[in-house]
Amino acid sequence: MGSYVLRRVLQMIPVFFGTTLLIFVMVYSLPGDPVTALFGDKAADPAVVASIKHTYYLDQPIWKQYLHYMGNLFQGDFGTSFTGRPVSDIMADAFPVTIRLALMAFVFEMVLGLALGVLSGLKRGSIADTLVLILTLVVISIPVFVLAYIAQTVFATNLGWVTPTVQDSYDLTQLVLPATVLGSLSLAYVARLTRTSIGENLRADYIRTAVAKGLPRRTIISRHLLRNSLIPVVTFLGTDLGALMGGAIVTEGIFNVQGIGNVLYRAINQKEGPTVVGIVTVLVIVYLVASLLVDLLYAVLDPRIRYA
Amino acid sequence: MDAVEVVGGGRASLAPGTPLLEVEDLHVEFHTRDGVAKAVNGVSYAVSAGETLAVLGESGSGKSVTAQAIMGILDMPPGRITAGRVLFRGEDLLTMSANARRAVRGRRIAMIFQDALSALNPVLSVGYQLGEMFRVHHGVTRKEAREKAVELMERVRIPAARQRVGDFPHQFSGGMRQRIMIAMALSLEPDLIIADEPTTALDVTVQAQVMDLLAELQAEFNMGLILITHDLGVVADVADKIAVMYAGRIVETAPVHELYARPAHPYTRGLLDSIPRLDQKGQDLHAIKGLPPNLLRIPEGCAFNPRCERARDRCLAELPSLVPVVGEHGEELVGRRSACHYWHETLHG
């Protein structure tokens, strides 16, 4: 087990450098000069531009920029945005919002998705099963922005339960609606995945053995069926948590949630290299850690992986 | 645990020869997209304490479906028991309440499956899966259950049982896994064990070991054993009597050695002739021509008629019933029956 974890952690190192380099190159090779763009319509003084470029290391070849950036990164310095604000400051503001939003969406999709999936998986062909299948299909087919607008119209405009957009991104109650919209697509996938997995495992030989052993139905389901059925679902949930943390540009945009997605969107528009690279680097780490946790959890759930 | 009264009493009360299980005229159908598959068409057999009944037949002959119906693990739907009774010590399992039935399963009648790797839960340790029997049926603690599991593993002669009790099924060899299956079936000292092709997935040398172990334990506990197999070699040493099945019917029953010496049904003869023999080295293997019938369209008359060398007009029209077989001088042959119109030709000629 220990060597397995070590191997997985070591594997993360090349992935980390590879992805950050890729993002770095992509952001800095975007057309247009971000420094000149800062001056807007005004004519830029070449001396000032050169000085700014020097400050941000932009006058160096890209590989030197990358090494410089990485050097700073390992000292905990994410660099400074073009507005002069440290990138770490910007992230400290936005990440807590996104983490809350993501966790709420995650809990929503996990609890409800699993419940619906187990229900319809155990009662295949029933009315409840058909209903779950139809509803999840609808959710999967509708783009998230349509879903967001429908939610806004129904819950804010018609019912008046909430304000259409979030006024204070740190207020958890205001985040409920965007989190629900954000988690709904994954919820549909979780429900369907769980249903399929339960259906497959119900026909497995070891379930037949469990019945032949004279075990009560609840023991068969909780001890034998669920644990085996949840293995693929856990994989999906884990990677999805990483994806949710990446900020939901569309959902955060529509509901005016001041999270990572919004900040990233603005930074990309303004070609703010340090902000984009900083945020994406953190996201890469989050994603890597999330998938490591999934793999470890996988090993806990399935002994065949543990000892392989 | 649930206070469901167990059918019969403790094991000690069972003298050898006490009737345990009687299957009477069992019919099982499967509803498929293409129609109704008649998997079991009026099977009757009986097993007593200490007795081994071998049920022999090809895939699709209904031998496993019958066992699943007895055990109550038939997939319903698509399966359906349309007629018959399954009497266990006088009580009909098919009409019992779900709870009473569950109390019989595992405790009074246990089952051993063919492929232990898929029949054991891959994510639970063998110790847990063995101990579960005691925890659920006897309500013992987790620790006691583990102790019982070790005892069971020792009883089926798994080396280093105490060290291996926490291991998972995939960490054992095929033979050891099947021993664990046997241990699980034996755990509550049932009256009857149904072994569905217990050695098919094993190497030949391991097959013999597992069969010997099963036979030995059966004798020790004076259990009834239904041994389902397609392998004539497996049954010869351990079975007392044999029922040969074809297309959902029993076509011949006989005490084991008599069946081998003098079969009374062309199908049984075909099976025996298709066993490779050393003294026929170099010659072509004898095979029964044709294929087992499609259960959606079982032939009229005798189901074996398309493959039978002796088939005549009567065989195409009239379904033979399972009738007693008598010797050349009209003497009674105990336990011998055949479902062939012309059984005497096969038996005597």
Commentary on this structure:
The complex is a heterodimer of chains A (308) and B (349). Chain A is mainly alpha-helical and 308 residues long. Chain A has a domain at 91-272: Orthogonal Bundle (MetI-like fold). Chain A has 14 helices and no strands. Chain A has helices at residues 2-28, 34-38, 46-55, 62-74, 87-122, 127-141, 144-158, 172-202, 205-212, 217-245, 249-255, 260-269, 273-301, 303-306. Chain B has two domains: 17-239, 3-Layer(aba) Sandwich (Rossmann fold); 246-277 and 288-348, no CATH class. In chain B, helix 4 packs across helix 5 and helix 7 (174-186) runs parallel beside helix 8. Chain B has helices at 63-71, 98-104, 116-119, 126-137, 142-155, 161-164, 174-186, 204-221, 232-238, 256-261, 266-273, 313-317, 343-348, and strands at 19-32, 35-48, 52-56, 79-88, 91-92, 109-112, 192-196, 224-229, 241-246, 249-255, 323-326, 332-338. The termini of chain B are far apart. By secondary structure, chain B is of the alpha/beta class. The A-B interface holds A 203-206, 208-216, 219, 223-224, 227-228, 231, 301-304, 307 and B 2, 71-73, 75, 102-107, 110-111, 113, 115, 118-125, 132-133, 136-137, 168, 170-171, 184.
